[in-house]
Structure formats: C-alpha cells, structure tokens
Amino acid sequence: MKFIVSGKNIEITPALKETVIKKVGKLDKFFRQDVEAYITMSVEKNRHIVEVTIPFNGGVLRAEEENHDMYTSIDKVVDSLERQMRRNKTKIEKKFHGGSLRLENFQFEDDDVDEEQEFKVVRTKRFAIKPMAVEEAILQMNLLGHQFFMFSNAETNEANVVYRRKDGNYGLIEPEF
Q: The Sigma 54 modulation/S30EA ribosomal protein C-terminal domain covers which part of the protein (predicted)?
C-alpha cells in the first residue's frame, strides 16, 4: 500500500507522518501493494480531524474522525475503517473478488463479527427533476430542510446531488463516465 499524507492548517511532522503510516499500515495486509491510501489531517479550532480514503477496484473505503488530540483521531479512524470492513466483509468479498482486496487475511474472533444484515429499502420516493443551477439546488435543499438534494444540472444536463457537509459548507456530486 502506498500512503499519500497531507495536512490542512497543520504542519505534518516526521513523527506524526510516521505514526499515521504505521497505524493505517495495519490495514495493508488487506490490500494489494498498488492500492493508495490518501490520509488528510487537519486542525479546525480545537478539533483534530483525520480523514482516510482508500480507493480500490471501483470501491472506496473512507472514514473521518475528530478529537481534541491528533493521535487519538488517528487511532479512532483506523478502528472505524476496520469496523467498516468487518461489518461488510461478505458483501465486499462478493463485489470485489479478485481485485485489490485480499480478504483471506481478514480474520476476526466470532464474537468480534457483527451479524450481517441485508440492506432493505423501506421507502421509495419519486419526484420530477427540473433543470436548475447549483445555487438554486442548494437554496431548494435548504428550504426543504434536507441534508442533500438531487437535481438536473442546467449547465451539464446531468443528474447531480448537492449536500451539506459536516463543516457547514456544501458539496456537489457529479457523475463520471
């Protein structure tokens, strides 16, 4: 696994970089060598945030944790990634078999594995999508009081999603073909 470590509002010291690579490196046994792990550490006021994104074989494993201490955030994000893999082991194995993931190394105690549940759609909602600008979609989302809003982008004529981020800003999801 290759590690790309970056910082935002923080200087990444060699000790910090070494620690995060060592901790996230524990997940190395589950991936092929060509997989890259993107690690972003940032500081906002008293919050120390660590975000890890590992794209593999068309899938993405991602976790973000925050704490008052950067080293605690690193530990929490690694635990979160392991928990995601543990919960979804069978589904991940079926979908990405033979790719960048090596789940033969993925062993847990029997009491450590949560009961796997089927994903169940409990509600389907249909609505007409009208072309609009991104700013108009954000306004519509806020008026509805939702965390996300799907719309047809007037500029690209493609389905897009705007969403409210944890930091209070907005994100835009665009399809890539």
A: 117-172
Dihedral through CA 86, CA 89, CA 92, CA 97, nearest 10?
130
| 170 alpha carbon, distance to own chain's centre | 16
Average pLDDT over residues 41-64: 86
* Residues 123-157: tens digit of each pLDDT: 888 877 889 999 999 988 887 778 999 999 999 99
Single pTM value for the model:
0.61
pLDDT tens for each residue of 14-26: 999 999 999 998 8
- C-alpha distances (whole Å) from 164 to each of 98, 106, 167 are 36, 34, 8
3-state secondary structure of 1: coil
Tokens of 163: 């969403």
Please report, to the nearest 10 degrees, the dihedral formed by the alpha carbons of residues 42, 3, 11, 71 taken in order.
60
> Tokens 């705007």 sit at which residue?
162
Burial class (CB in 10 A: 0-12, 13-18, 19+), 40: middle
- Mention every residue, 6+ apart, whose C-beta is less than 8 A from residue 23: 74, 75, 78
Domains and CATH numbers, the chain: 2-112 (3.30.160.100), 131-173 (3.30.505.50)
